[in-house]
Amino acid sequence: MPFRGMAYLLANRGLKRYAALPLVVNIFLYVLAFLVFFYFLSRWQVSNVAWEFLGPVGGWLAAAVNWMGWMVKLVVVLVALGAAFFTFTAVGMVVASPFNDMLSEKVELSYTGGGKRLDMPFRFTTKAAMISLYDSLRNLVRQLGYTVIALPFLLVPVVGFVPLFLVGGYFAGFGFLDAAMARNYLRPPHKRLISRGHFWEIVGFGIMMQGLFAIPLIGILLMPVGVVAGTLLYCGEDWEKLLREAGMDKPPGFQPPKPTMVTVSESLPAAG
Q1: In terms of Cα–Cα distance, which of 112, 93, 91 is closest to 234?
Q2: How many CA atoms lie less than 13 Å away from 23 in the CB half-sphere?
Q3: C-alpha span between 53 and 207 (Å, rounded)
Q4: CA–CA separation, 269 vs 259, rounded Å?
Q5: Residue 44: phi, psi to the nearest 5?
Q6: What is the full per-residue pLDDT of the chain (272 aa) written as tens digits?
Q7: Hey, is 46 helix, strand or coil?
Q8: In contact, 229 and 25? CB cutoff 8 Å
Q9: Which ranges of the chain does DSSP label H, i.e. alpha helix?
C-alpha cells in the first residue's frame, strides 16, 4: 500500500502541492518539539553532586549518584524517542489534519472522477474539518490507552515487543484510512465495518509505514504517502454494499465513492 500510494502521488502531478503542506507542518513542529525537549534536558543538572563528608565514602556515594543521574537521563531520552516513534502517525494526523483533508479530498476527486459533492475541489466544509480533527484526537487517545496496556508485555523475553508493534501498526494504518472516512462524515460504527473486514491489511499497512518512518531523515517525508494510500483503500471499498449488509443507513452528507480511475492530471488543471 505505501508503494501504491507513492506511485499514485508521483503519477498525478496536481497532488504534489497538497502533499507538501502537511509535510512542512509536521517537520517544523517535530523539529521544534525536539529542540525544546533537548534544551530542557541539557539544563537538567543531575550529575553535579559533590559530597565531601565521610571522606572516601562520600566521594564514592557522590560518584554513584552522578552515574545514576546520567542513566536516568539516558532512559528519559530513550523513552521520549520511543514515544515519538510510536505516536508519530497519530500526532502528525492531529496536527496536520486540515492539510491531510485537502490532500485526501484531491486523491478522492482524481480517483473517482469527481461528483456532486466534490464539484468544488478546493473547499471542504467546517463541519467535516472539525469531525476529522475530533476523530484524529480520538484515535490518538485510543492509541495511547492501548499502548499503556501493551507496555508491560515488553518484560516478556523475545516476543514482548509484538503487542506494542501490533498496536502501533493498527493505529498507524487506521489513522491514514481515517483521513478519508472522517472527512466523509463516517462515524465509529461505520468505520468498524471496514476495520474488521481489512484488519490485517490495515495492520500490515501501518507496520510498513512505521518501518519506513524509521529510515533517518527520509521516513518523515512519507506521511503524505500514507494519506494517499489510505484514501485509495477507502475509495476501493464498496460502501453501499458494506452498509446494506450491516443494516446501516448512510450518514447525512455521505456519498459513497464510485471509482473511475480518472487521474488528477485529467480532472484538474495542471499547476502553473
Answers
A1: 112
A2: 20
A3: 55
A4: 20
A5: -85, 100
A6: 889 998 998 888 778 888 887 777 777 777 777 787 777 767 766 555 555 555 555 566 666 666 676 676 777 777 766 666 656 666 666 666 777 888 888 888 888 875 444 443 444 456 666 777 777 778 878 888 888 888 788 778 877 788 888 888 898 899 888 888 888 888 888 888 898 889 999 999 998 988 887 776 666 678 888 889 999 999 888 888 888 888 888 887 787 887 654 443 443 444 43
A7: coil
A8: no
A9: 2-11, 16-42, 56-95, 97-112, 126-150, 162-183, 188-197, 199-213, 223-235, 239-246, 264-267
Cell 468544488 belongs to 120
Question: Could you please report the per-residue DSSP string of 199-227?
Answer: HHHHHHHHHHHHHHHTSTTTGGGGHHHHH
Residue listed under C-alpha cell 489510505: 230
- How far is C-alpha 35 from the chain's CA centre? 21
Question: Distance between CA 163 and CA 172 in Å, rounded?
Answer: 14
Cα 226 to Cα 216: distance, rounded to the nearest angstrom = 17
Scanning the structure block, which residue is given the C-alpha cell 534536558? 41
Q: Which three cell numbers stand for residue 55?
A: 571522606
